[in-house]
Amino acid sequence: MLSSNFVLDGLSWQNTTIYAFGTAAVALLISYFASEGYKLSHIPTVGSPLPFLSFFSAFKFMFRAKSMIISGVKHHKTLCKVPEFDQWVVVAGDRELMDDIRKAPEHVLSAMTHLDELLQGPYTFGTSTILTTYHLPLLRGTFTKSIPHLFPEVLSEVRDSFFDVIPPSQEWKALHLQSSIMHIIARVSNLTFVGRPLCQNKEFIDLSVRFTQDALKAAIILRPLPSIIKPIVNYFISNISETRKKVKDLLTPHINLRREAMKGGSEYAGKQMDLLTWLLDEAKGEDATDDALTSMLLFTNFGAIHAPAMALAHSIFYLAANPKYVELLRDEVAGITSRLGWTKDAIDEMVITDSFIKESQRLHAGAYIALIRKALRDFTFSNGVTIPKGTTVSGSAVSNHLDEKLYPDPHTFDPLRFVKMASESTKKFDITAVGLDLIVFGYGRHACPGRFFAAVEMKLILAYLVTHYDMKFAKEGVRPSDLTVGINVLPNPFAEVLFRKRV
Ligand code: HEM
Question: Which residues of 485-495 are buried (b: 16+ CB within 10 A; e: fewer)?
């Protein structure tokens, strides 16, 4: 009895195991055929295309995105797909196909739907803020045109914020670079967004920087999670609602003052020239509530604080590690300001400073891919390959930025590279010029509308820094390595730079 039971138990164990493996295999096959990977099986894969194994490739992609994208583009030439934990990203390596992405209309390949997913809109800025567009013509038009007019105030805000963030001292003082530079940028940008006195209100600036950092953190953590658990995780990791409320409380009295003044007509005495004024002029309906205006300012602050601060930190790392670069910029700035003073014309003439920042952007762009879009319907490239609705598609920035046909000795930082290129061509090579050769500001209809302001702001800050301060690393001459997470490239977030007032 015992032995027959044992045999039966053995058989049923065997059967159970067979059933379990069989069910798992069928489930795996069904999930594979229903998966995004299968729908994209006609696109060559970097890593493994198989379920589970692709998870390991996604893990590898977290740390090796640069080499995986470069090798994918090199081997597959036109299109390949790379694995992220929650999706496949199709990468175009071919310029014609990148141009297809640039030219595709928003209702086919959507930049904004991608941004809403990337930034986890419902948990950060709000999907309605990310998808609205009324502010874009303002940024491209009125805001950009006002830069020369606002320049004197921008300069004085640069002076004041340097004085507060890097107090002039004869002694070397170590500062956490990223947070210092973010605070300077936040103040200078907010001069043009909300004006004085709010841009000098320490609480407002601290909250704007904190919101930018917290939103980014929440987006990174929440994105790969299943939708059902996002609200729970968000509850534990995020202070965003509280920060937004505090910003709104500080902003509302200023909104009310301006609304009151607007009652006498849109062109009232003492009308401030800043983004808040122009948003109030343009916003209608849902966009015009205090909540929506607060979210819009926080969203614009995000674009205006994070990217320029990262770009400047990369440039300052080159300066702190190489005294000869500091001298190079100092000579240019001293020569030009002695003729033109600290003016917008002087900043425009600083072609070496411009080339320095652009070269640093080339080697340390914020992401290895660009022109990232979500397909809202099936999309066929000019080579006949179709990607299905729902696919995330992009162009490889890194393989262009390191292409030796475009940039001889591409891995070497050459601060004069773009000065030389401009002298040999009729094309424009300044920071604001956009194209496929250098795609740090995007290209086409979604190209960054803030880049003209960003260029002036970054050049002014760098010129001011080299003129008034010495800088170095504690370990002299060693530039800290970047932090890369998947497609994202960040200047080392832990690095400290020593500053001393220049005698
Ligand atoms: C170094 C500084 C900056 C970098 C590297 C940068 C980069 C970018 C990139 C890559 C895009 C997406 C382009 C695309 O998808 O094709 C973008 C869009 C945008 N940026 Fe910037 N940006 C910078 C500064 C700024 C500033 C200062 C502002 C605000 C004043 C700003 C506001 C925006 C806005 C509103 C968009 C969305 C444009 C649209 O969808 O049409 N950015 N930026």
Answer: ebbbbbbbeeb
- Average pLDDT for 238-247: 94
**Nearest-atom index, ligand 1, CA of 372:** 15
- 3-class SS of residue 41: coil
Closest CA to 394 of 413, 372, 409: 372
What does residue 96 show for φ and ψ, rounded to 5 degrees? -65, -40
Count other Cβ atoms within 10 Å, centred on residue 377. 11
- For the stretch 420-423, contacts whose Cβ atoms lie closer than 8 Å and that sit 24 or more positions apart, written own/partner, are 422/351
Write the pLDDT tens digit of every residue in 193-209: 999 999 999 999 999 99
Q: What is the mean pLDDT of the chain?
A: 93
| CA-closest residue to ligand 1 atom 11 | 448
Secondary structure (H, E, C), 428-480 = CCCCCCCCCCCCCCCCCCCCCCCHHHHHHHHHHHHHHHHHHEEEECCCCCCCC
Closest CA to 81 of 43, 117, 138: 43
Contact 118, 457 (CB under 8 A): no
Helix (H, G, I), strand (E, B) or coil at 257: helix
- Pocket mutation for ligand 1, best pick of 441, 446, 457, 488 (most atoms within 8 Å of C-beta): 441
What pTM did the predictor assign?
0.92
Q: Cis omega before residue 197 (within 30°)?
A: yes
Of 350, 344, 354, the C-alpha closest to 148 is 344
Q: Of 312, 120, 144, which Cα lies nearest the Cα of 214? A: 120
pLDDT at 144 over 50: yes
Q: Which CATH code for domain 132-365+403-501?
A: 1.10.630.10
Q: What percent of the chain has pLDDT over 90?
A: 86
Q: Which residues of 386-414 are buried (b: 16+ CB within 10 A; e: fewer)?
A: ebeeebbbbbbbbbbbbeeeebeebeebb
Instruction: Say whether domain 42-99+368-399 belongs to CATH 3.30.43.
Output: yes
What is the CA(379)–ligand 1 centre distance, in A?
25
Residue nearest to atom 39 of ligand 1 (CA): 446
**Domains of the chain by residue range:** 42-99+368-399, 132-365+403-501
